[in-house]
Amino acid sequence: MRFKKSPTYFAQYAGLKVACWCLRILPYHAAIAAGRFATGAATKIMRKRFERNLKDISLAFPDKSPQQVKEIAYKSWQNMGQILAEVVKLSSYSKETFKKHVEIRGLDILKENQKNKVGGIIHIGHFTNWEAFGMAVSVEGLEKAVLAQRQDNPYVDEETNRLRNIFGGTTFHSNHDANPFLACVRWIKKGKMIGILTDQNILSTDFFMNFLGRPSAMSPITALLSIRLQVPVIPVVVNRENGKIICQVETPLIPPTEYSPENVRLFMRKLTDIYENWIRQKPENWLWAHNRWKRENEAKKWLEDNPQCVP
Predict the structure, then answer these.
(1) Quick one: angle between helices 47-60 and 66-90, nearest 10?
(2) Alpha-carbon distance 244 to 146, whole Å?
(3) Cα(86)–Cα(83) distance, integer angstroms
(4) Is CATH 3.90.320 the classification given to domain 7-309?
(5) Strands (E), the chain
(6) Using CA atoms, how far apart are residues 262 and 265, in angstroms rounded to an integer?
(7) What is the C-alpha to C-alpha distance for residues 238 and 129, in angstroms, rounded to an integer?
(8) C-alpha distances in Å from residue 110, one per residue of 58, 104, 120, 138, 142
(9) What's the confidence (pLDDT) of residue 176?
(10) 3-state SS string for 91-126
(11) Whole-angstrom distance, CA of residue 40 vs CA of residue 44
């Protein structure tokens, strides 16, 4: 039933629409408080998933006390509700009002890239409110696309994509389009930027790498595209300051000049190190609810059998 419309999926979608309507009629900060309360309360209902998050956090941060681990996990769940509330509210605003809530620092880097038609890959992950950054890029008049995984529920997926691109934009689906790699290549060759959400739970990949100290299956597409097309990778991390969403555009990374499996792995290690550093700085801002290590045993065996591939 994956990606197929069904009564169950429609019921889930209807529930989401009701929740969005409730959030939309509330003032901005009240909507955020409501969203955080709802997903915070969900930790009591979805106990198994929450307990798995506690385990993952404790393994990633062995120096943290059980209370600190629980606090990180709980705040991460609250952040999910805040993301929904922010996206619902922001998508209903004018561009001028939107800018009062979201700021891109380092915007000149993106504008210069578009002006010169350099093309490139925005290296971003499930931090704070990554969707707000994508919306902000369009609000600022920049042309962008994103590579994202399609959600199983087609109704919810369509609504998510509508809100994601409400100010403009294009979405390629890594787990649904016939050939997302070629779609990304065509887009970048036009001198355009594409945002790729880093994921550590790729079912179809044979690319394995340690992530937060544990073997994980991830996609090397960012490194592959960057090296093959010789375009920069632009890291972007999202945080909040004084109630405002701050999207920090960091210094672009230039890829190795020659393609080789070794260079792909080394460049991916560099990108993953940046990503891990963001998580270690503010672990509560990362989306721990996803299971990043579903293929840990398989990844561990592969890395043991191929020690030369562990940078």
Answers:
(1) 120
(2) 23
(3) 5
(4) no
(5) 102-105, 120-124, 144-148, 170-173, 193-197, 208-211, 214-217, 233-241, 244-249
(6) 5
(7) 7
(8) 37, 10, 9, 11, 8
(9) 56
(10) CCCCHHHHHHHEEEECHHHHHHHHHCCCCEEEEECC
(11) 8
- The pLDDT of residue 182 is 87
**pLDDT average per 10 residues of sequence, the chain (311 residues):** 80 92 96 97 95 96 97 97 96 96 97 94 94 96 88 88 91 70 90 88 80 92 95 97 96 96 95 95 95 90 84 66
Q: Which two tokens stand for residue 33?
A: 């408080």
Cα 147–chain centre separation: 10
- The verdict on pTM exceeding 0.70 is yes
Cα separation, 162 vs 156, whole angstroms: 10
DSSP SS3 for 169: coil
Q: Taking the alpha carbons of 77, 278, 151, 191 in that order, is the dihedral positive or negative?
A: positive
Ranges of each domain in the chain: 7-309
Please answer whether residues 119 and 235 qualify as being in contact, where contact means their C-beta atoms are separated by less than 8 angstroms.
no
Q: What is the pLDDT of residue 84?
A: 95
